[in-house]
Amino acid sequence: MIPTARRGARRTGTGYAPCHHGEILQGVFLDGEGRRCAGLVTLPLAGPGSRAVFVRRPGTAPDALTVVPADRTKAAHAAVLAVAECAELAGLPPCGGVLRLAGDIPVGLGMGSSTSDVIATVRAVADAYGLRGLAADTVARLAVRAELASDPLMWDGRAVLFAQREGRVLEVLGPALPPLVVVGCALGGGAPVDTLALPVREAGDADIREYERLRALLRRAVATGDARLLGEVATASARRGQEVLGHPEFDALTAIARRVGAAGVQIAHSGAVAGVLLDPAAPGLRHRVRRCLRALDAHGIPATRTFTTAPTTKETPHGPAHRGGDRPAGPDTPRRPARLPAL
Q1: Do 115 and 150 touch, CB atoms closer than 8 A?
Q2: Could you tell me where the beta strands, DSSP code E, fall in 137-283?
Q3: What pLDDT does 196 receive?
Q4: Which sign does the torsion angle of CA 246, 277, 203, 272 carry?
């Protein structure tokens, strides 16, 4: 659906985008035409996010952008792309402007910090051109052009298998993942992972069959709300990711999950963040969480935050960003650490 422009497009627009807590499933899958395609399913995380404010400067060149903080190069590229797209849709001349970003997502842990910046930027530009929201597939296309590979944060928590390098949905699994309680932690001491330095492992026919098997199991888990089955898929995917990431604490993490009766574990395939997945309907949940936290501490694995995937906030997923309580970004404003005290 083509978004419509509001009368008298404003010069200032705002946008918001959430982050995620790594992946539930990542691998190589077959698309509708039987073509191999890299894809992933992320674990939503409410709370931390990126907020963008874009102020148009009519009469300036479209690439005449001031970005604060200045190091957000992917967001800057996204702003230029979004200006061209949104100006045409709104029937207005493209122009430059000022982009300001603020957020509280830790960088380098595999939580989608750069994608969150990019999506918030695209939504802010659309708002500045008076558009009533861009379709998620349009945002995805712009995000992939801006950063080469993107997380599916523009789908606002829906459970989708997303081709991160192509910006398209391979399958809509359902409106949301089954409810989970996640005891978050950081592997490798929380050190950022340089994904470009990781070895590339080509997927063979046996790998494709296994990924498709996990995809079918996850589809069933979402359809039936089965947290246990989802945990089985996440653990199998994490174990495959471990072949590349090589986190020394991984065996301890899976042992802790078994000991506390968890559904499984998940890790960021491009970072250090991980989680023990608990079924909120299982008996003795609080006791399990406490035992898990004590076990993580005993193994020297820093716990970060415990959260549920059930919606707990009314944060607006896009459109006007909430300003109350946020300090504006300045030229040397670093990303604040999120509410992840161990990091």
Answers
A1: yes
A2: 159-163, 168-174, 181-186, 264-267, 273-278
A3: 59
A4: negative
Containing 57, the helix (H) or strand (E) segment is strand 36-57
**Tens of pLDDT, residues 278-310:** 999 999 999 999 999 999 999 999 999 999 997
C-alpha torsion angle, residues 158, 163, 167, 170 (rounded to 10): -60
- Give the pair of three-digit tokens for residue 275: 């989680």
Q: Would you say the C-alpha torsion 138, 141, 144, 147 has a positive or negative sign?
A: negative
258 burial via Cβ count (<10 Å: 0-12, 13-18, 19+): exposed
Give the tokens for residue 287: 């006791």
Burial class (CB within 10 angstroms; exposed 0-12, middle 13-18, buried 19+) of 5: middle
Backbone angles phi, psi at 174, to 5 degrees: 165, 180
Neighbours of 173 (CB within 10 A): 22
Helices 136-147 and 73-90 pack at an angle, to 10 degrees, of: 140
Whether 166 and 282 have beta carbons less than 8 Å apart is answered as no
Task: With CA atoms as reference, report the closest residue to 29 among 207, 197, 191.
Answer: 207
pTM for the whole structure: 0.86
In the numeric block, the tokens 């051109």 are attached to 129
The answer, yes or no, to whether residue 317 has pLDDT greater than 80, is no
Question: Contact at 8 Å (CB) between 176 and 159?
Answer: yes
The pair of three-digit structure tokens given for residue 112, joined into one six-digit string: 């989608």
**134 CB-side CA count, 13 A:** 30
